[in-house]
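Tokens in:
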């Protein structure tokens, strides 16, 4: 059976805050974006609407003084993108070819070509897979279990409580340190007797009087009840195998994140974890015409508002590119869709045939005389 062919100026991957914001902007710019989203899949942690679909209270998204439920916020994002004419397609992409423009994307039913591609596929928190960790009603996820201290730490349920952070890397130290602003005490459970975190992050945590370490300790289960949420964890000393119940009111799993970038391996530049590398001055990746926004390119901030912010940037970058204007690349150069390169010092333009012309307005005016 032949596949349906689709061609678009802008194709967006992912319908979290980043992808939907890019859709709102490019749809309002009359670019008729096609937004492709992965179907809901618990194992791959994908869901139309993105990560906020699996949370309850969002208290820090500007514009909602009383807070808003994550899924309700994402319904509003989607309605706004639909209002300006975004087309949606919910399917898995089986392959992408970014070697030539238009770029090609394959699904089981479609062959899609895209003049520009905005990647907003997000990142998934890594979980341990232990009993009690899954989302309510299967566990206490959202009712005492979290993977984001910035998002959930300030919630009333965690204030002045004893909390457990699981992990031994930079993420765990950062989460533990942040949580001490609200919690009575924070216990870091780590399987080894040494941390993997950088020296400076370790030192900050060791110096914090509210943080205590549970060394050689594995968390085997998160305990609780429907009424109270998390009430404790079942701990095991990995050396002696001794088990004990440790009371606490919240658990923050902080063992890292995995950006959803497997599709682009070998085609786009990534850091060692797999986050897409973008220019510091734009959302451009190393392939001209491919932009990345939101958590897929952000291992630092990972918030809905920053994802939406970079989604806006990616849309404006794609618009500029389609208007044949230069866009800043990770190398510091700027490129146009015609293949012109403006050097990082802005002094020269290298044409596609390799010839170099000055980028100095006065010299250009002079050369016309
Ligand atoms: C439990 C929880 C609570 C949170 N609470 C808050 C909070 O209170 N405040 C806050 O600011 N932030 C919060 N965050 C963080 C926030 O959700 C993220 O920073 C934000 O959602 C990132 O947006 P994004 O658009 O980059 O990616 P995501 O929201 O992760 O969306 C990614 C999208 O890409 C899709 N996708 C993935 N792979 C593919 C693929 N191969 N092809 C096509 N589509 C794909 C997914 O289905 C999804 O639609 C929370 C996160 C979690 C997990």
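Residues out:
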């Amino acid at each position: 059976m032949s596949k349906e062919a689709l061609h678009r100026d802008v194709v967006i991957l992912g319908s979290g805050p980043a992808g939907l914001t890019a859709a709102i902007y490019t749809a309002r710019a009359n670019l008729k974006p096609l937004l492709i989203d992965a179907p809901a899949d618990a194992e791959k942690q994908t869901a139309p609407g993105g990560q906020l679909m699996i949370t309850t209270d969002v208290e820090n998204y500007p514009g909602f003084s009383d807070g808003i439920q994550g899924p309700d916020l994402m319904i509003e994002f989607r309605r706004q993108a639909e209002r300006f004419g975004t087309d949606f397609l919910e399917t898995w992409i089986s392959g992408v070819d970014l070697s030539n423009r238009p770029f090609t994307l394959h699904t089981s039913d479609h062959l899609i070509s895209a003049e520009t591609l905005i990647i907003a596929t997000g990142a998934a928190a890594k979980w341990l897979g232990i009993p009690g960790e899954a989302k309510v009603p299967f566990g206490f996820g959202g009712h005492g279990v979290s993977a984001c201290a910035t998002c959930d730490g300030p919630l009333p349920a965690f204030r002045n409580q004893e909390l457990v952070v699981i992990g031994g890397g930079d993420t765990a130290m950062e989460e533990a340190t942040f949580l001490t602003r609200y919690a009575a005490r924070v216990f870091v459970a780590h399987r080894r007797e040494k941390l993997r975190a950088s020296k400076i992050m370790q030192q900050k945590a060791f110096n914090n009087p509210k943080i205590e370490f549970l060394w050689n300790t594995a968390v085997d289960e998160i305990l609780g009840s429907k009424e109270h949420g998390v009430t404790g964890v079942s701990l095991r000393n990995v050396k002696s195998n001794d088990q004990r119940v440790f009371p606490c009111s919240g658990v923050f799993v902080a063992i890292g994140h995995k950006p959803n970038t497997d599709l682009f391996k070998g085609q786009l530049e990534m850091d060692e974890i797999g986050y897409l590398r973008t220019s510091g001055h734009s959302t451009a990746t190393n392939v001209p015409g491919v932009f990345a926004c939101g958590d897929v390119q952000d291992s630092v901030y990972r918030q809905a508002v920053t994802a939406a912010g970079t989604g806006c940037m990616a849309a404006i970058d794609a618009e500029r590119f389609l208007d044949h204007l230069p866009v800043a690349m990770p190398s510091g150069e700027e490129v146009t869709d015609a293949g012109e390169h403006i050097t990082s010092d802005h002094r020269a333009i290298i044409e596609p045939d390799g010839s170099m012309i000055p980028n100095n307005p006065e010299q250009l005016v002079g050369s016309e005389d």
